[in-house]
Structure formats: structure tokens, C-alpha cells
Design a protein that fits this description.
The chain is 26% helix and 31% strand. It is built from 6 helices and 7 strands, in the order ααβαβαββαβαββ. A 7-stranded mixed sheet has the order 3-2-1-4-5-7-6. Strand 2, helix 4 and strand 3 form a beta-alpha-beta unit.
Length: 197
């Protein structure tokens, strides 16, 4: 499905980073090792690289990776783009920051496994940064999957990262314009937590 979706000249979600990353630019510190999970067409990984981070990006759709590499070249930055299925990836490396932005293609059971793997890839004291939709997004027609169980709530994310130092856990609405894929008033959530040292 994702390969079909990305097989177009157009950047489905635009080339600007998610506003979530821009809002939290102060957390993106030069020299950090960062991982962008299910990175898509590169808009978020490229932005992190522009901020001076050493970025690895995981993505399943080859057509998205082609566009992401093109975007990185145009912005004159280096990103290690890897063609992987995040649900079966070995996750051998560790990072100072792991970002999952609109990665709500998995249901609760599979998401639990993905979160487990993402946690393993964060160094002690490192950050998880999650951004996505809440169940209130259903029916808006402005982006996201049609399954409420794939969405995040503040309570669910708090439980998933129990014992971590929660920096932010906030649901809100915002008018976003991120290509045709995300466009209009949206029910969003930002979650940032620091792994215990």
C-alpha cells in the first residue's frame, strides 16, 4: 500500500518537516545520533540532519526512499536511509533520540512490539519523540488511518512509557498543511520522554 502511495512525483506529505519537530527544535542538538522510524519521503530526517544531527532513517517503501535521497541531496545533507520493515528490523544500534512521526499504521499489539524495539534503541538519558493523531481524528478526513485503535491517547502513551521522565504528553487540535496527505484541522498528540539513566 505505501509503495503505491509514494509512487508519484509529488511529495505526498510535503517537503517541510512536521511542525512538531519545528516546535521542539531546541531538543535537536548538533552531533546527536538520531533515528527516524518509518521516515517516508524524508522530510523529517532531512530536517534533523539540517539541524546537525547524525541521522539514520528507516523506511519500507523504495519509492519513498528515492524521494528522500533526492530531498537530502537538494538540501545538501547526509542521511543514512535504510530499506527495512520496522516490524522485523533487528534494531542493533543505539541513538540519543528516536523519532516516530505519524507512524500509526500498526494496531495496539504490533505497536507494543515496535515501542519495545524503539526503547531498546535509545541510550540511557536519550529521548523518544512521538507525534501522531488521537482517536478524535476519525472522520475528519484530514489525514491518518481510519482505525481509532491505531491512534494515541495521553493515557496510553503514559502507560507505554511508565518509568520514563515524561517531558511532554499533550493532545490538541491544529490546522496543518503537510502535503495532500495531512491537510486541515487535525486532532494531534505530542509525546516526549527521556529514558532513565
Amino acid at each position: 500500500m505505501w509503495e503505491d502511495r509514494f509512487q508519484t512525483e509529488e511529495y505526498v506529505f510535503g517537503t517541510s518537516p512536521a511542525q512538531f519537530l519545528v516546535d521542539h527544535r531546541d531538543l535537536l542538538q548538533q552531533g546527536q545520533r538520531a533515528l527516524s522510524v518509518a521516515d517516508g519521503e524524508g522530510r523529517n530526517s532531512v530536517f534533523m540532519a539540517e539541524c546537525g544531527l547524525q541521522v539514520t532513517a528507516l523506511e519500507f517503501a523504495p519509492s519513498a526512499i528515492v524521494k528522500a535521497r533526492k530531498l537530502a541531496a537538494e538540501r545538501d545533507v547526509t542521511v543514512d536511509f535504510q530499506h527495512v520493515d520496522v516490524t522485523t528490523h533487528d534494531w542493533p544500534d543505539t541513538y540519543d533520540l528516536v523519532a516516530g512521526i505519524f507512524i500509526q499504521f500498526l494496531g495496539p499489539e504490533a505497536r507494543e512490539g515496535l515501542f519495545h524495539d524503539m526503547k531498546r534503541s535509545i541510550t540511557p538519558g536519550g529521548l523518544i519523540m512521538l507525534h501522531g493523531y488521537t482517536p478524535e481524528q476519525i472522520g475528519r478526513g484530514t489525514g491518518g488511518p481510519p482505525h481509532a485503535e491505531n491512534m494515541y491517547t495521553e493515557a496510553e502513551l503514559g502507560r507505554a512509557f511508565a518509568g520514563w521522565d515524561i517531558v511532554e504528553n499533550r493532545a490538541y487540535t491544529r490546522d496543518i498543511n503537510e502535503g495532500r496527505g495531512h491537510s486541515g484541522i487535525s486532532a494531534l498528540i505530542d509525546f516526549i520522554a527521556r529514558k532513565p539513566s
